[in-house]
Amino acid sequence: MAGMYRLRARRWTNVAAIYGFLLLLSIVFMGPFVFAFLSSLKDNPTEWPPSLLVNQLKPSNWAAAFNLAKQGGGNGFTGGFGPHGEIYFEATYWTAQGQEPAPPEVVVARRVQGGAALALRVEHYAADYTEVRDVHQVDQEPHEGGLLTTYGFTLVNTSDLHFDTVPMDLTVPMRQQFVSGTLTPNRIERLGRAQSWDNVSSGLFPYVLANYARVFRENYSVSTGKKLFGLWIRNSFFLAATRVLTTLIFASMAGYVLARLKFWGKGAIFGLLLFSMMVPQQVTFISNYLVLRDGIFGLSRLFGVPTLLNTYGGLIISGLVGASSVFIMKQFFERLPASLEESARIDGASTYTVFFRIMLPLAKPPLGALTILTFQGVWNEFFWPLVVITSPQDKYPLTLGLLTLQRTYGAASFDWGPILAGTFISALPVLILFVVFQQYFVEGISFSGNKE
After folding, report:
1. Whole-model pTM?
2. Nearest to 372, CA basis, from 429, 326, 334, 315
3. 8 Å CB contact between 235 and 398
């Protein structure tokens, strides 16, 4: 009996060790992803030391952002400062014993996020039409050898205009420490003297997802005036969907031909296929570039297109199907039972009928795997689009758009929030696609469903 208990205890110990190891691996692999997501919500993703505590995820700030926008005559979820709206705000400060507390200097700032380029597009600033009224002391109580003093004031929109953003700054004397406010400030600067809010009427969603909203709002084409980030996502979806479609069509047909049909030169073609898989893209990109530059040896000129550079046609034609995709489909079709094809041919089915009616419906696992692999490869492709697509920015896929974000926000201003937000958005389609096709992906790679 004692031996049975020891055996059971040892078994549970082994199970606990395995689960602990898997949990550790999940933290190692998913930890950076979770940290990047949390940082994409922060006002200052480069804070040091780094912290997982995000003001944008505090329920108290959710309620405050909702109520402030509602007070101001805007929508509690989407924000805004309506005509003749009023926003009541409070801030609490600590002063040491013997120091006279002073009310904060309240300034509605004349600034906009996104730099000078976006500022040129702003017609009216909330600072020009907003008055600060009735700055008064609300409460005062002793606290830890000093005083906690709460001040209140009201922001009033004196115009008939509606403002999306109301930036605000509070300034107090030295050694008067900020403790709390109706809404947590985005920044505390000048040795704690200045507290800044990017938007006190943001509403719930713009407050929590401020960097995500900035990515869509602040990036626009100088030539056309269109918002760029949505265009970049659409361009990437178009390129990825087109490549997936061409890969599934050509890879399945070529794989079936190489696996099931007999013709002269099949071995040589398969050998060339394997050889092309061994050649890195960096070796052939110059020759491929020259082919696209000349319009595929001048053939594109017959259709009035002098060159395929800077066109989606060049990207699509240069990657209609990959050798690895043909290889996967060939290996799958080779392992299907020959009796399926023989029975169909006895019944008078042609090669096309056998392929489309029998073989292709059985190929869902490898086709699902190719869908994920191809979509992921095209969606994350950077080097070749960087060579082919140079201008305008409206044509960029999302990967080149993220490079533009890095130049816009990271090079000089170190404003990494929108960059992290854009990067997280770019990862979502691949994650969703993998979840949808996960079963086919596993079966397609392992060929577990193919039994003779």
Report:
1. 0.82
2. 429
3. yes
Nearest to 400 by CA among 376, 380, 414: 380
Q: How many CA atoms lie within 13 A of 181 on its CB side?
A: 24
| Lookup: tokens for 65 | 């952002």
Is 88:154 a contact under the CB 8 Å cutoff? yes
CATH superfamily ID and name for 228-446: MetI-like (1.10.3720.10)
**Is residue 141 helix, strand or coil?**
strand
pLDDT band, very low/low/confident/very high, at 81 (cuts 50, 70, 90): very high
**What Å distances lie between residue 403 and 315, 376, 411, 423, 428, CA to CA?**
19, 18, 11, 10, 18
Q: Residue 176: name the closest of 89, 99, 91, 90 by CA.
A: 99
Tokens of 177: 């420490």
Q: Are 58 and 184 in contact (CB under 8 A)?
A: yes
At 375, which amino acid appears?
F
Domain extent listing, the chain: 1-41, 55-208, 228-446
Peptide bond into 50 cis (omega under 30): no
- The pLDDT tens digits for 97-122 are 888 899 999 999 988 776 555 655 67
How confident is the prediction for the chain on average, in pLDDT? 85
CB 178 within 8 A of CB 194: no
Query: Residue 275 and residue 256: Cα distance in Å, rounded?
Result: 19
Can you name the residues that pair with 163 across neighbouring β-strands? 81
The angle that helices 417-436 and 228-260 make with each other, rounded to 10 degrees, is: 30
Q: What is the DSSP string of 341-387?
A: HHHHHHTT--HHHIIIIIIHHHTHHHHHHHHHHHHHHHHT--HHHHH
